[in-house]
């Protein structure tokens, strides 16, 4: 069995410029692409992740939750971010359920403890058991309790980085709105086909951020985290690509190198 981590970016499944706005047609189409692929490739296991988009990020920006939680107002904000992130998660799993996939959410807020903004404790065995029994585990960007910060937010990439050491995926697919990693964001005239840890040293200053509110960082944060993971798991392959074009997600799952490939 081969294993792939797939993230549906918040910019892809929500309108990040409009708070609490789902792109329901796009979400349904992505769910259908995965359902068709799974049916045709029963030996492929998938851990599905998704961003919080205009749901969690809007609330988190208002309360500054990513930086830490202290005091009654901040803790009320923590609960609000959880509510909005879990609301989006419910919409995501409903779409995948309609597509006929046996999805089960493993809520980070209930299972992950962080320390200074990094995963410290996470029992991955329930996710492993789900995979072994043909289920499709779902995780998502979420608030978590933090031993140093009180509380914080972990992105899907943060969670993938930790989980990769336990489950050992062959590929991580990060599907967003952008065609890949641009060398000159926001001009978007030069798309990088490949990034390695060495080449990134020259490219980093011009990669830019993201459109809309994103409290967990933009493209810099995403690429930095994934390259750090490649240093620890050299055989891993990571793809950053657009899921906006119909069929792209299914093609990437099938092994095509769309967008920007990260490798050592």
Number of separate helices: 10
| Strand element count | 14
| Order of adjacent strands in the largest pleated sheet | 3-6-2-1-9-13-14-12
N- to C-terminal distance: 23 Å
CATH class bucket: Alpha Beta
Shape: globular
Radius of gyration: 17 Å
What series of H and E elements makes up the topology? EHHEHHEHEEHEEEHEEEEHHEHE
CATH superfamily: Acetylglutamate kinase-like
Question: How do you describe this structure in short?
Answer:
The protein is of the alpha/beta class and 264 residues long. It contains 10 helices and 14 strands.
Please characterize this protein's 3D structure:
- Helix 7 packs parallel to helix 9.
- The two termini are 23 Å apart.
- The protein has one domain: 3-Layer(aba) Sandwich (Carbamate kinase), CATH 3.40.1160.
- Helices cover 42% and strands 23% of the residues.
- By secondary structure, it is α/β, with parallel strands linked by helices.
- The chain has helices at residues 10-13, 24-40, 53-63, 72-98, 108-111, 125-132, 156-167, 197-203, 219-232, 248-253; strands at residues 2-8, 44-50, 103-105, 112-115, 118-122, 136-140, 142-146, 150-154, 171-176, 181-182, 191-192, 194-195, 237-242, 260-262.
- Strand 7 (142-146) and strand 8 (150-154) form a beta hairpin.
